Amino acid sequence: MPELPEVETTRRGIAPWLExxxxxxxxxxxxxxxxxxxxGMERHFAGNVVTQVRRRGKYLLLQTRTGTALLHLxxxxxxxxxxxxxxxxKHAHYDIVLENGxxxxxxxxxxxGSLLWTDEDPARHPLLAELGPEPLEPEFDGExxxxxxRGRRVAIKAFIMNAAIVVGVGNIxxxxxxxxxxxxxRRAAGRISRSDMERLARSIREVLEDAVACGGTTLRDFRDxxxxxxxxxxxxxxYDRAGLPCPECGxxxxxxxxxxxxxxxxxxxxx
DNA sequence: ATGGGCACCTGGCTGC
DNA sequence: TGCAGCCAGGTGCCCA
Length: 271
Fold this sequence. Notes:
- By secondary structure, the protein is of the alpha+beta class.
- Helix content is 25%, strand content 21%.
C-alpha cells in the first residue's frame, strides 16, 4: 500500500495527535507482525511522552523521551486516529492509547508491517543505517544516481526501487517517475547518461512531491490518519493503465513483469 | 558485490 | 454459489 507519499501523509495526519502527548498504554492484540512485537514492548510506551513523529524512507519514527519506536506499514497497513472507545476491526493489531482514551490504531490485514523499538540513535538501527538519501532532500540528485549506477546492470526500475540507492520509491511511483523521465524501465542502470539521470532524479522528486500534495494514492484501501483516501490516483499516467492510451502520444500503455512486480510504460515515449 | 528469486500473509477479484 | 487461481502499494534474506 504505502510508498513515501502515503507514509508522509500518514505522518502528517497522526503527528498533531501524538506530539507532546503522554501515552497511557500500548494495547497489542496481535504480536505476529513481520517481526513479532516483543513481549516487553508495552513498557516502553506506558507513561512515556512522544516528542516528535518523523519519517525515514517508509519508516515512521515515534521519538519519545526514552527511545524511538520504528513503525512500518508494510503493504496493507494503516494508522488511524480514533476517538476513545472505538471497537477494533478484524486486523487492528495494536493501539497507542493516549491519556484521554484517544488512540492511534494500526490495522494491517497482511501483517507485513512492523513495530520495533530502539534506545539508541535510530539512524544507527540496522534497518535504517544502510538506507540511501531521502528523495525530497537536496543530497538526492542526478549525480548521486549516476555515480551509484556505475557498473550496475540491473534494470533502472529495480535500481530506483532499491532503498539503498534512494528511499521511498515503490512500485507505483517507480513506473510514474520513469514515464515522466522518458526512460524505458528495462534499461540497465549503468547505461543511462548523466543528463538522463538528472532528468530521472527531477522526475522522482516531482512525482513524490505531487503525490504528497494530493495526500497519496488510493488504489484499494489506502487511508490517511483520519480515514481519507489519497487523490493522486487520478494523476497516475501509466500505473495500472495497461492498454489505455498514453496521455502524451496515445500509444497503448504496456504492462510487463520485472522481479515479480508489475511495470507499466509507454513504449513510444520511454526509450 | 551483484542480481534474482522467495518468503512472509490476507483479501479481493476473475473465471469456470 | 462455490471455489481455485491469481494479483496486490514492501523488503529482508538466501543463493549462485
